[in-house]
Amino acid sequence: MTVALAFYDTLRREIVPFEPLVPGEVRMYTCGPTVHDFAHIGNLRTFLFEDLLRRVLVARGYRVTQVMNLTDVDDKIIEKARARGESIGEYTERYARAFFEDLDALRVQRAERYPRATEHIEAMVELVQRLQRGGHTYTTEDGSVYFRIATFPDYGKLSRIDLSGMQDGARVESDEYEKEDPKDFALWKAAKEGEASWDTPLGRGRPGWHIECSAMSMEYLGESFDIHTGGVDNIFPHHENEIAQSEAATGRAFARVWLHAEHLTVEGQKMAKSLGNFLTLRDVLERGYFPRAIRYLLLSTHYRTQQNFTFEGLEQAAASLARLTDFARRVGELPAGEAPGSEVAPRTREARRAFDSALDDDLNTSRALAAVFDWVRDTNRALDEGSAAAADRAEIEGFLQVFDAVYDVLRPDPDERALSAEVESLIAEREAARAARDWARADTIRDRLAEKGIVLEDTPHGVRWKRLART
Ligand SMILES: [Zn+2]
Fold this sequence. Notes:
Number of strands: 16
Helix content: 40-55%
Shape: elongated
Strand order of the largest sheet: 5-6-7-9-8
Bound molecules: zinc ion
Radius of gyration: 27 Å
Distance between the termini: 43 Å
Order of helices and strands: EEEHEHHHEEEEEHEHEEEHHEHHHHHHEE
Strand content: 15-25%
Low-confidence stretches: 168-174
Mean pLDDT: 92
């Protein structure tokens, strides 16, 4: 195991060496989706960053326990379920299912647990009671319970937000009008007519949003754990409030390192339903792209850099993937024996070190990918010159495996395999037509392939085909 792994900690505002509480084990909490709609690609970028983080930790030999919550009760869910005449369970189930379909399509490795807020009401109530005993709360006339941030002097340490500007104007939510201080936040909301609610020792009501992440992370990972992640928009108020209520209750440090993924824009603009650029995975796939190209694109920018999603960028991502896939295939066709004076093996070891050290440096994915593509270019040149041979294969394929254990983009997607089977059979038909000197038939087949964006190429190893980036 390397000791070089380091992450940028939002709390300390610097890159710090990663040291888990228990050597060899990582306990990680990742804020999950609110299942009231399909995830948009900005959300998916965050989930892919967390997948990259998880895979790098596993590659470094850690045993990872990751917990991601599903928020399945909040104001929006209650409102939308009511508009449809459904229970919140019925309403959220379809989006929870869609969320897991998206994760699978994008090859996001499953977390160990996906706890749902509605299944952890008791743990949340207990945490609120603990805060009550510690004198950190007050109850308003309607029976709602608020966290009194004046009792937690460290409030604001994560976001370093200027709280003096938060005056009464922040009282936008009418149901929080009774707050003593606009910065205070709801731990428990008293039941309102016709809303989903639970009978508990705190009275009839439902949890505030923030409390679920504190209660569920502590239940599955302990009062202190190693890594907490989310998007930058979670920093304030969500993560600030998680810290306040967790540390006020336990008197211990909550998460040891905080990692946050930056925003994603679409064609240079902030995503918004009103702009019509609110893209879901389904929207992008409908345009004929394969999921692994989307995975690759969203993983190609460092998570702390804003990413601008464009369809042109997606074309380039698909082209880069095609280059990698061609390269992997070419390596499988290396001539037998040893190439005299081959530099390929030492060059491969060097590239692998550069790749690992880039990822160790706060998941510097752009540097890691640059190391891979420089190496592919050099190795392709060696292959062209005949100065690489089968003796180099183990080294090359070893690095490709290391790369793909983290990026997981070399396997074709199911739709791609279906396309391959169809194309391969058309190519075989065309070969048969050519052998029979039926040139008209051979041309017809080539034209049909061209319509699908397939370009044929004659090589010493037979006919190869390439699909242009889009179908
Ligand atoms: Zn959360």
